[in-house]
Structures are given as C-alpha cells and as structure tokens.
Amino acid sequence: MKPSLIVHGGAWDIPEEAVEDCRDGIRRALEDGWKVLKSGGAAIDAVEAAIMVLEDAPAFDAGYGSHLNLDGHVQLDAIIMDGASLKAGAIAAVEHIKNPILLARAVLEKSEHMMLVGAGAEKFAEEHGVPMCSAETLIHERERAAWSRCREDSHAAEHHVGHESGTVGAVALDTHGSLFAATSTGGTCCKLPGRVGDSPLIGCGCYADAEAGGVSCTGHGEGIMKIVMAKLATDLLHDHRVLIPHREKNEQPLSLPQAVADACVRKLALRAHTTGGLILLDHEGNPAAAFNTPRMAYGYVEPGGAFRIAP
Hints:
Glutamine Phosphoribosylpyrophosphate, subunit 1, domain 1; 311 residues; 12 strands; single chain; 9 helices; alpha+beta; 8-stranded mixed sheet
C-alpha cells in the first residue's frame, strides 16, 4: 500500500507575520513524518515524529509555546489512536511533559486504560521513562506577556498570536495498511485550571478507524465536542450521500474525503455555532482538509512525494 501523511497546526486567524513560521513548522513535520513512511516505517512512528516537531515549535499551541491557563501554567493534552484496534492513548492536564505525544503513546502501548490525567498521568510518565521537564521550560515569553496583559485588561484575543487555536495533529497510513491519528494541544488561553477540551477526547478531537479513515480536529473545543466531530467524519466516510449537495449545485465533483471534511465544518457552524477545522485520510490514504476560519496551517504529501502546504 502507498503511504500517506497529512498534518495540521491549527485553524485560526493566522496573521501575515506568523504565516512563514507556521509553514516552516508544517514543512519540518512533514519531513520527519515522511522520512519514516517512505523508508517503510510504521504509521505510529510517523505521527509521533510529526507531532513532536510541532510540539517543539513555539509557533503552535502545543508543547513549548502553549497558552497559559488562568493561574499562569501550561497544561497539555494529547491523544494517539490505532485505527486497527480502535484503542487510544490519551493524557490531559499535564504540566511537566516536554512532548505529550510520547506520554499518550506510552498510555496506548503500556496501559489497560485509554486516558490518564494530571498527577496520575505524570506518575505514569515517570514509571515508564517518558521525559519530564520543569514547568517553566514550557512557557514562552510571548505567552507570559499575553497572560499578564489579559489579567490587567480582561481576557482579549488581541493579546495572543494564535489566540483562538493552534492545536496540532497528524494522520498517517503506512505501507502495511496501518492507520494512526494523533492530536496535541495546550488548550485555550486563560482557561480554567483542569479544563480539558476536545483534543484528547476519543471521537471529538481525534479518531481513527482502519475501515474508514483517520481524523484530527482543531478549533473551538467545546463546539467540536458538541458534534463529536472526528467520529462524525469517520462515519460519513461510509456515506456517499455527502456528495449530493455538490451534485445538486452542479459543482465540480469532489472526492468523498473532501465532501466529508466540508460537511463536518458546516455541521460545526450550523449546530455548534462556532469555528474550527479538520484534516483526514480515508482508509486508502486520500487526504482532505476543511476549515471555516480565515486560515488553517496544514500540509500533506502528494502522490508524487511533493509537499502541499497551506496557508
């Protein structure tokens, strides 16, 4: 089977001055993930490699550079899911993990549970050799300054680059047909301590089913949770009726994956009255992305091996 990879760095109103940093991060994530896949490596290793690049890049709201919560701390969430077994590993509200995707994978592979949170998740990390770090090393000065301004002048979007969302994600299909999806985030700025959004929740911010496809979402978490958007997308990949609206309008024929992505974003707007986006691969590795924000940072590997990157 031909391998495939798609990644994202969040759907939001990306300003011009941040576009190049976002594009660079997406490019490096594709490079690291594709290096694994084109050499015959496993999809789980590819999504992990891609997500780690994005967690380490301060342009995104994941790992280093994440938004601070109301108490001025970084609290991180992540998930990775196996499309074959439908098992996921997820972690939430951790404050001392440099790369949360590594801990999510450890939960997937070494725990009978599918989600661990807070102190329990960090204890699991210590017991299984997942690298820990000082909470301070996760804080970017840009976010500390934004947090301070929010406290002085009430919470305001203009204090933040990437205020709305900068969650990161990846979906990969390898030569053996294994499909994995993953999502990682720092959540919303000035969130209540202990708040968990859609990102680490199975079916909301991430889902993978080898019989349908894999999905990673980004945007307003509470809205995405309302429509269980990632699971909605994989279910719709079985339903060719999503193509009907485009046929009725005599529009150019869409691929089923793209019609599904578009349908999910419409649902997010119409039923949850909010914004966001998603990336997906169907079970054959065909990519799609959709969003209703001004921009979304994402990229995928084209059939010939070239990288297609937006914005």
